[in-house]
Amino acid sequence: MIADIYYDLRYALRMLRKKPGFTLVAVLTLALGIGANAALFSLTDAVLLQSLPVKDPDQLTTISTIEPSSGPDLDNSFSYPMYQDLRDKNDVFSGVLARGGAQMNMSYEGRNDRVIGELVSGNYFEVLGIRPWAGRLFTQDDDRTPGAHPVAVLSYGFWERRFGKDPAVVGKTILVNENPLTVIGVSPPGFYGIELTSNADVRVPLMMTLVFNPLPKTRLQSRRHQWLTLMARRKDGVTQAQAESKLEVAYQQIRSGEAQQLSADTSATERQRFLDRKIQLGDGSQGFQRLQREMKTPLLLLFGGTCVVLLILCANLANLMLARDAVRDQEIAVRLALGAGRLRLLRQWLTEAILLSVLGAIAGVLVASWVKTALVAFMPPDYRMNLDLPLSWRFIGFTLLVSLVVGVGLGLAPALRAARGRSAVALRGESRTFVSGGGLFSLRSGLILVQVALSLPLLIVSALFLNSLQKMRGADTGFGKNNVLVGSINPTLNGYSQEKTQVFYRDLLLGLRALPGVQSASLSSDSPISGGWDREGLVIEGYQPAEGERVNAQSSIISPDYFRSLGITLVAGRDFNDQDKAEAPKVAIINEMLARKYFGSANPIGRKIGTDDKPDTVIVGVVKDAQYISLREPALRHFYEPIAQQPRLFDLTMHIKTVGEPTALVDLVRAQVQRLDPHLPLYEVKTLATQIDESITQERLVTWLCTAFGLLATLLTALGLYGVLAFSVAQRTKEIGIRVALGAQARDVMKLIIGQGMLLVIVGVALGLAASFAVTRLIASLLFGVTPTNAATFIAVSVGLALLALFACYIPARRATKVDPLVALRYE
Question: What 3-state class would DSSP assign to 709?
Answer without folding.
Answer: helix
